[in-house]
């Protein structure tokens, strides 16, 4: 069921009303998972590693999460970094990326938002970092004034949204002129052209950088397999665990096979909002 939901949303082949129903079911699923996982399950993304290795310096406490952290770091530093910026992350999951970026990249403030209220409760309990706030909200109706942020970050979350165009419009609305949208996600290859078209037609935004990261994600997924399996070991009843393991972002799983075969494609983007200041 979980895989069917995620795949249908990611593939973008459903009517908006149907996608909204599935999205509602997925939200309930995420609440369930949040209550089942241990407090050390703070990352849900697939992971990232370059060749040669990225070699990102990490504190000892962060080292076990190297590969999910590297996906966040690579995404967030596309435009040079976050020092002194007001940052919004949409779809923060269990907050591991928000915690790392706040501590490592020195933004002026970092607001991490998610539609999963149980996940936000988890984040507030788990991550006590100065300058980091967690907010419950919807990606298609961001609860912030216009031009509130210098950067918006979205990691491996947008494939869940029923109306991707509404999300992009909201990103544009809350970004200040000259602000950046730092973004990474995947889609089924047959809808990648529409995905690209949606990004290129986003109101007030233009694509500055884009690159395919299939190889880096597969490498990170492989290296993070043991950690991911340990984190998710008890999320399902025992009789479902073999099925759940095949749905995890680990080496040899259905997710891994779909990217390796070319069925799915993973991309990283940096978009900028037009600077309206006088010349």
From TrEMBL:
Answer yes or no on keyword Lipid biosynthesis.
Answer: yes
**Pfam families named in the record:** Methyltransf_11 (PF08241)
The answer on whether this UniProt entry bears the keyword Ubl conjugation reads: no
Q: Where is the Methyltransferase type domain?
A: 88-182
**GO molecular function annotation:** S-adenosylmethionine-dependent methyltransferase activity
Query: Which UniProt keyword terms apply here?
Result: Lipid biosynthesis, Lipid metabolism, Methyltransferase, Transferase
Q: What does this protein do?
A: Catalyzes the methylation of the lipid moiety of the intermediate compounds phthiotriol and glycosylated phenolphthiotriol dimycoserosates to form phthiocerol dimycocerosates (DIM A) and glycosylated phenolphthiocerol dimycocerosates (PGL).
Q: What's the family?
A: Belongs to the methyltransferase superfamily. Phthiotriol/phenolphthiotriol dimycocerosates methyltransferase family.
Name of this protein:
Class I SAM-dependent methyltransferase
